[in-house]
Protein 1
Amino acid sequence: MDITDQEILEKFAVESTQQFAFNLLVKKYQEKLYWHVRRMVINHEDTNDLIQEIFIKVWKNLHKFRGDSKLYTYLYRIATNETLTFLNKKKRKYFLPLSNVEKKLEEELVASTSFDPDKLELKLQKAILSLPTKQRLIFNMRYYDDLSYEEISQMVNTSVGALKASYHHAAKKVEKFIIDD
Amino acid sequence: MAPATLSTCMGRKIEIHKELQEITPQLAKFEKTNPFEVPADYFQNLPGNITERLQIKHDEVSILDKLIRLALKPQYSLSLISIIAIFIITVIVFDRTDEINGLEEQLQTVSTEEIQNFINDNIEDFDAEMIYENMMVEADVTEIDDELYESIREYLIDELDENTIMEELL
């Protein structure tokens, strides 16, 4: 898609082209945000609900966006906050300690993916799921989304130094999990 | 990523891969694959699904408007707030969401006047009088102005998690 973020924002600012601009925005970013959320919540149904809520929130708040950050940074920030809120709610809803939520996510992972359970892909996903939520989020953003530390820093309000340390620990833990498993 | 050029993206991928090789050469050897599946045509349909949800949300906010306006009227406030509180407690404590999901659709068809009539028919005169007197003494409120209404409405919609409110209330 060739349209720039600036063009989307300009069209969104005009009432007659607002809906059109919003559709362009959804089409441009839906896949990136979907996979960002899916890797955290694992199953498609939850991701689908969440991604729709995220875009509805964007629709309601985009008029307040002043361009202090890049548009995709702003979108990722909303998606990340909504995802973390969802995971916390899930924990509260089932009155589960975090480790059990991750166990539940692991069961959903096995149920909602098509790969061979003996393959390394599944081990990698299980290893990533064993990380604490915030560390898992940072690992995914760096490892899968190829985001720079500066971008992640703006999205999760954490210093670059802390992010580097977190990613380093996460990668080491993932490696150890795979070797020990 | 939108603003980055192809060469910037490639450069960053290489940089991230080198970093991973330094931290854990084992993990760096893994091929990054996507094990998850999505239903056919999911991304073609998603923009349309979101537009539909936006229309439903718009209607939900209208219902919320009705309830807030009623709750701000002294003669209805305590009753309506009690009803809302009971709904929220019911949903949170007993997780009866499925049983009350139909309420949203029913409320769409109910006018503000009908809600007022229902409360009038189901409240004792003594209760209404007592509630009204308590309201006047405790809050020194004579009438609800638009500014107060707007500020409460904005608070409920923006500051409280509106998804939760609507999911749990309706």
Protein 2
Amino acid sequence: MIIETKGLTKAFGQNVALQSVSLEFQPGATGLLGPNGAGKTTLLRVLLGLLPAEGSATVLGLNPMRQRRTVRARIGYMPESECLIPGLNAVETVTYMGRLAGMSKRDALKRAHEILYFVRLGEARYRDATEYSMGMQQRLKLATALVHDPDLLFLDEPTNGLDPKGRVEMLRVIAELPRAPYNKHVILSSHLLKDVEEVCTNVAMLKEGRLVKTGPIAELTGAARGEYEVEVAADESRDAFVAALGGAGAEVELVRNRLIVKLPAETDTDLLFAVARKSGARIRGLRLLRRSLEDVFLDALEVNRAG
Amino acid sequence: MPVDRASYRGWEGTARPSPRSVLAIAGTMISRRMKLKLVRYLTSASVFGAIMFSAGWFLLTTMFDDNFRALLSTNPGADQLLIANRMVFGRLLFIALVITAVVGAPMIAEDRRAKALRLYFSRPITHLEYVLGKFLAVAAFAVVVLVVPLIAMYVLELGLSDKDGLAAERLPTLLASFGPALLACGVLTMLVLGISSLSARTNHASIGFFAVFGITGMVSQILAGVFRNPTWQAISPWSSLRRVTAQMLPMPELKASRMFQLPVDSTWDVGTAWLSLAVWTGLGLGALFWSMRKVEVVA
């Protein structure tokens, strides 16, 4: 596990930004989802050691409250807002940020060129960064987060303000990061569910400073739960098929002439075909049942509201 | 498309907090400010102006030896370099005031305006390192304006003279001039950074810096006139700075034609001037600490 928090609470005066948040982030890419004002940015800033908070947290095995400098050296942070240093071009900005992370000037400069090509700013790297389009500025911010080759990246609303093309480009770059040879752990904070769904394998959902749902996306959306929609001819063989599936440990429900089948753990569609063969049923259609992340998110908010 | 994965090298080192970040901040800020024409002109003007002036001065005093002897007799204990330093220092102090405003006023204000502080403090640096880096950057320009001309004048005199042992003879004069120069660098830098940290607009910070000097200068002169007490001048950091630096120079007063000197009122207590400088520097430092403390709670 790369991040663990227990009872993390942060208030700004009367406004409670985080309310006893306890979560665990696994290696890889994790989405931090929530509407605006849910406490996503505050959580990232607490984990960076920028804000003191009640409760406990460990980031890469370190305590961000006590070892804040060591933690920051191992994290790359891409803030949500515009924050580029005026008067510097992209190479200077990235080199500067590398040096502030403790790199030598030579290493930082060499790495700045490599990372600017990685985020597709190679051709524009000597232009004043304040003249960049929004998409280029976002990619430059990503480059400053990557320059010191951190183990963990905090990306706060990286697609904010981008046009569709810019968004696709940014997500394509981010999606590369958890893979070899980069091998970065990514925490992607966003209120855009599609962004998280495209890039992340895990998700944590926040609402009004509370954690409302967390887990692997595949599990939450049903992709990993082994639920299938099966279409078979509506005759005697279907009844035999349903009975045989029940005998094999599957849960079966008939919904609008279609069977919703939840297979037992550690089995796959081979079981469906084997049972169909035995019972003489002909499978006409088979579809993995999964809910969208949006459905999961809305359900989580609804449950939270009811609770 | 992203770069070819096979060509990706990464970085083999380990990022860790390092005091080198202070030098990184100072170095980057210096190179950034040097892009401004006004800064280049002012630093060149002070260094080359002092060199040209002293070259003329050394040549003239050598050529018109009688005049120089007369000047020495009215300024007992003085030497050629000392008199030259004394003539130039007041003018350099004024250029230092202007250059610290030009270089220093945007130093923190600009970061606040661009919200770059978030970027800075997401790195393993402390507030102290950030402030120290900015301090060194501004102070470097003040040092170039105040100290480099003094060194240039020393070297020039050695170059123009064929007198044996002159280097050792003039060295104490040179070193004694560093004290007031470095004091002025420190006070001006701290004050401009303090004012810069209070605003998110460079213009406001510049105006605020000059307003501190201008308004306190006027008020102090009016009060000194009304109460017939020159000690009221201590309200002004500029008057106090000139009073203290003049006192610290090896020859506090230069008896020469007005053309060659910037008059400093030395009738008031230098201790009060020191106190005034300490208060103004403390105010600058206090403003810096206050605004830096607020950085962490910016949501």
